[in-house]
User: What shape does this take?
Amino acid sequence: MAPPSRKVLLLCGDYVEDYEAAVPLYALPALGVAVDVVAPGKLPGSHCLTAVHEFLGHDLYTELPGHARLPVTASLADPSRYDALLVPGGRCVEPLSCDPTAVALVAAFVKTRKPVVLTCHSQLLLAAAGAMAGVTCTAFFSLRPVVEMAGGKWVDPNPFEKCVVDGHVLTAIGWPAHAQIIGKLLARLGARVDGGAGKAVLILCGDYVDDYEANVPFRLLSALGCRVDCASPTKRKGDHCVTAIYDAPPSPAAAVTEERRGHNFGVTVDWADVVFAADEYDCVVVPGGRAPELLVTHASAVALVKEVAEKGKVVGSVDQGHLLLAAAGVVKGKRCASGVPMKVVARVAGAEVVEDGGAVVDGKLVTAASWLDLPEFLAHIIEQLGITVSF
Assistant: This one.
């Protein structure tokens, strides 16, 4: 990965919305943008608890426990060291809006007119900083009265993927807008993106696909102009796959972590359309989690991965995604980054297992051992696709 060209600050706290923190944290470094995470009252090396906010058939979203180990990497620092501020939503916003240091931090970025990204409920901090007046913005629907009472101009978040930009302030309803958020933030950071338009990427998934390993590539590659489809042999377009959350192990010796339900991940294309048009894709990404155990039982999924690889396209896999690649014969004779879950599988399939972390490239094959390696994994995928991001 190239040395960082820009540096942004992520303001968090306990029960920050999981995706809204994780996507910038793991996607932006793949593009040469360093990310520091700060949380009032927490020291570098500590962690924030995250929360999953998802609609599960009730009138309001349900809150589920997310990852428990979102890393805090810095102390509250001089805003002049950073090029932008990102404030995810979640219940952390309420105490942050009453914390003088957090409010002062937001006010400082607003004053210098550096990009400020606010999602879901974090627009409350703009009101707390006395900086909402005259700003056109969107948020989660419950924030409309707050925006209007504070003098802002409300815009409905329709569609949910929309990011509203008013000068240096970027707002959105939440994580569904991450592709637009990243794309528009990059533009305001002076980035030039080349090579993404016209590229097509397929993400193969199923129920209990890893939460981060599916969503972070989906949002980032979409932000770079790629057409990104998600497909599952058991789902139709418009269906959802339930995702699974696995925390980072607290120690190298702890190879197994608790599984929790994550967000819903939308299927964007019918399986039959994917099978008959596999040649249209420049890259296939297979996230981990338990979904590969389902995918490997579908001959059409195995055949699709084999076809894409044989045609010299890019194939990427994280963690248990290696199981599908092994069944397709894709890892035979290749260097393959594998953690404990897939170490034996990769060796039986004829791979040279690399265990030192990070992501590994061998020809058009890109592998990573876990979601912790997503920044490097995605940087390699982007390079293999011929996409460049320059500042």
Q: What stands out?
A: Residues 100-112 form the longest helix (13 residues). The chain has a mean pLDDT of 94. DSSP finds 13 helices and 26 strands in the chain. The chain has two domains: 6-190, 194-390.
